[in-house]
Amino acid sequence: MKPRLTIVLALIVLTPLAITGWLGARLVRDQQAVVEHSFRELMLGQLRSVDALLGRSLEQYEELVRGEMSPLTVNAQELRRRTRQSPYALQYYALDVDGRVVFPPVQEPSALTAGERESYERTRHIWDGGELSGSAGDAETSTSGSPTGWHAWYGADGLRMMVWERAEGRVHAAEINSTRLLAELVASLPETDALSPEVAQGRIRLVDSTGRLFYQWGSYEPEEGALPIAALALGAPLGAWSLEYFGSSAAFGGAAEAHLLLNLGLGLGLLGATVIGLTYYFYREQSREMREAAQRVSFVNQVSHELKTPLTNIRMYAELLEKDADEADERLQRYAGVIVSESQRLSRLIGNVLTFSRKQRRNLELHRTPGVVDDVLRQVLDHFRPALEAKGIEVELALDASDTVSLDADVLEQIVGNLISNVEKYGAGGKYLLLSSRRRGDTTEIVTADRGPGVPSRERSKIFEPFYRVSAALTEGVSGTGIGLAIARELARLHGGDLTLEPTDKGARFRVTIHCPAESQPG
Amino acid sequence: MRTMKKFSPWPATALMAALMIPAAQADSVKLDVQMSTPVVLAGTSQKAYMRVALTGLESRRRHRAPVNVAIVLDRSGSMGGSKIEEAKRAALMALRKLGDDDIVSIITYHSTVDVLVPATKLSDRGSIRRAIQGIEAGGRTALFAGVSKGARELRKFVDRNRVNTLILLSDGLANVGPSSPGELGRLGASLAREGITVTTIGLGLQYNEDLMTRLAMASDGNHFFVEDEEDLELAFATEFGDALSVVGQGFTIYIECPPGVRPIRMVGREAEIAGREVHASLNQIYRDQTRYLLLEVELSPADAGKAQRVGDVEVGYYDLDSGSRAKLQDSVSVTYAKSPAAVEKASNREVMTAVVSQIGAERNEAATALRDKGKVEEARVAFESNSVYLQENAQRLDAPQLQDDAAVNLEASENLGEKEWNRERKKQVEGQYKTRQQRAVIPQRNKN
């Protein structure tokens, strides 16, 4: 196979594959982005539902504490009993209408229990700052209609919280056992083994305000320092806490992506196979036809060879007949002339076929001998004269190359013969043929011109292309323009010159140049 | 001696209390209040100790109270190998001790928490056994979450007529979630108020003994230091032995002192002291065992021959025998005398031994704190002098257990080096804890 054909075939196969592959990859990437986005949204939704879960736990805890607080009282003995028995609160408080703490009895320090003293120290900034008496804190309205809320702050060992309620101008409060509250929050959150499979593939973390891991669930183990796919900041009283979702790319839409990739791979494979199959078929068809064409050419070539010898004999004897025939027998002479002319025509045709075939085999050679260009031109014109006269074509001669030069007369004859033959065939309507020659240094220039229809401008560049189409019309093509002009140009170039179509007003005008240095006169 | 089965309305109780002095006794628990020095020196203000002892008696019922136990196992990476295998073996052994009416839940924690067996009656032992056998070690130590989840499982069936116990096993430092002894202590205190006891088992030499003891102490549970995993089974057996022999729980102890007596502190135990009123609590009393509280009081000066009531003690609890709330009452007095010899002669050797033992534990803690601060030499002196103190009192009071305490302190003074201290500290803290639990197998002569 020729390297160029290989490249073309490879391009035919690879280009659609590459384009499809690229588009497919883009599709996968877009799809992945879409999946990632919707997955992130999904996970954010999941985190929101966890947030809601935490919110409910906090509410429940508040209800438990407020259940213990009710009925609201300032009775020290009762508040001590509640404090002693409460699993949820560390210390209960009661304030008077002026915002002063009346229980525990802080005005009388010696009456305080150790627990009360410690709790008061922890919460003193709240009482002294009047933080609950004012409008501060995130107040809501309780079911009983009185304002209530949480107050959270950070103590020496972590989060501390207070639940408060204001009724009849007095604040009642509970410093809650925040560790117990946190334990309740943990208890309300899912465990790893109680999860639906899609959540179990990830990991949700509850991170406290210092960024420390507080609780986590899900079987996915994120790498150290990995960033969460989705994160949600929590509201008061767990301000600055956050929920984070971690997962591998395999976890979200991993299956979908794999599916897509598989489909894409299959599609590409199928497309590739189809393109390769088609290309192979195309290549086989072409090489078969080329083989067949080559066989036909070779057949025509062989036949031509076989025809050449009998044709030469026919021509020779016809010429003898023409010469020897009785001058008076005009009819016989005319018949002989037709035979000669037709056999010459056939010789040219065969010559063209053989030249073409030699050119195919890169076998064209020049056989230079001393000769005169004008003599060759006259001889060719003589061969055509009967045909030209029959069509009423007037010939104008302007020959000016009578020096003896080194040339291949057969080649020149073939070139000029093809050109005149074209005039006879296509330019006969102009009834005119110009044949001129002149020498310029080592180059001889020959011009043929007619006044026929000429060559349409869009075909000017194509008329020299060899009629190389593989088709049954080959034999017709030999007598057509294609092969004649192509061979003529090829031969002109072989002879160190060229054949060009000259621009002209009317008809076709060809210019032949051949390299033929002057031959030194033999001794 | 009379029996009071049920708590009666106040007026009747007051009358009965007057009739029943000095002691009242319910079915399964006996209350006994005594002074370290029933005779005190006249004419001077002085300190004295009141011992409130509660003794679990043989149950009349055939059946013990059902237990509701959550076993919370550490399966972090450090538990790998024989540790986790021994823990599984110990848990399986514990299961065999339980009956079909008992409730068990199994929780494992590492980086996350798994509720392996949600709280369930022990009727399907096969699946529980398989769940335990499937435990594998790996990951971090989410101890707080493990306890939180265990408590939730317990709470599903929590009942004053069940023994509600969470058993926590850990061999490492909690590194996910709250992990300070203070925080865990508050959680334990909260659980205790719901009738849940937390027992902690520290395995190996890497766990945080302060965290583990604070958690157990706050909920009145046990604490075990198990250096070698092969001894886990013993710890579990001891714990289950306790859980299965509880006769009463949810004890509230209220002591009211008359004018002239000022309560100072409860030795080795937290209590609420407001003026002359003292509130304390105890979670459980076991069969054939005594637990006691020591109240340090200051007595005002009085003339010789005068009798002074030191306190009226009222104890309320859930009697697992009768399945209802019961109440015990007692009170104690001192007499003032002129001669120190009379004081000495009357002094209660048993109560004094308890006092010395508690003071020894306090001094042991102080010495430990010195060592924690890196003051090795001062700690050595403190341990040694504590040893001498205990030794002297052991002889004076003829109390062999003080002799043992003295030996433990002496041993501590010899193991203060970097290499030995970690292990020694765990041993000392466990010892302090045992002392501060204030429990003892019943001395026979107290049974009257």
Topology of this protein?
The complex is a heterodimer of chains A (523) and B (448).
Chain A: H1 3-69, H2 76-85, E1 89-95, E2 101-103, H3 114-129, E3 138-141, E4 147-155, E5 158-167, E6 170-176, H4 178-188, H5 197-200, E7 203-207, E8 213-217, E9 230-233, E10 242-246, H6 254-324, H7 330-360, E11 369-372, H8 373-390, E12 394-400, E13 404-407, H9 409-426, E14 432-440, E15 443-450, H10 474-479, H11 481-494, E16 498-502, E17 509-515
Chain B: H1 10-20, E1 29-35, E2 39-41, E3 46-56, E4 67-74, H2 82-97, E5 103-109, E6 113-121, H3 125-133, H4 143-155, E7 163-170, H5 181-192, E8 196-203, H6 209-218, E9 223-226, H7 232-243, E10 246-256, E11 261-266, E12 272-274, E13 277-286, E14 289-299, E15 307-319, E16 324-337, H8 340-346, H9 349-372, H10 376-397, H11 400-414, H12 418-436, E17 439-441
Parallel strand pairs in B: 2-16, 4-5, 4-7, 7-8, 8-9
Antiparallel strand pairs in B: 1-3, 3-14, 5-6, 10-13, 10-15, 11-14, 12-13, 14-17, 15-16
Give structural notes.
The complex is a heterodimer of chains A (523) and B (448). By secondary structure, chain A is an alpha+beta fold. Chain A has helices at residues 3-69, 76-85, 114-129, 178-188, 197-200, 254-324, 330-360, 373-390, 409-426, 474-479, 481-494; strands spanning 89-95, 101-103, 138-141, 147-155, 158-167, 170-176, 203-207, 213-217, 230-233, 242-246, 369-372, 394-400, 404-407, 432-440, 443-450, 498-502, 509-515. In chain A, strands 2-1-6-5-4-3 form a six-stranded antiparallel β-sheet, with helices on both faces. The model of chain A is unreliable at 468-479 (pLDDT under 50). Chain B folds into three domains: 10-55 and 247-338, Sandwich (Immunoglobulin-like); 67-244, Rossmann fold (3-Layer(aba) Sandwich), CATH 3.40.50; 350-446, no CATH class. Chain B has a six-stranded mixed β-sheet. A six-stranded mixed β-sheet of chain B has the order 6-5-4-7-8-9, sandwiched between helices. Chain B is globular, with a radius of gyration of 23 Å. Classes of the chains: A alpha+beta (523), B alpha/beta (448). The A-B interface holds A 80, 84-88, 90, 111-116, 157-158, 177-180, 182-184, 186-187, 191-194, 203, 213-219, 221 and B 111-116, 139, 142, 144-145, 147-149, 151-152, 176-178, 180, 182-184, 186-187, 189-191, 193-194, 270, 272-275, 279, 281.
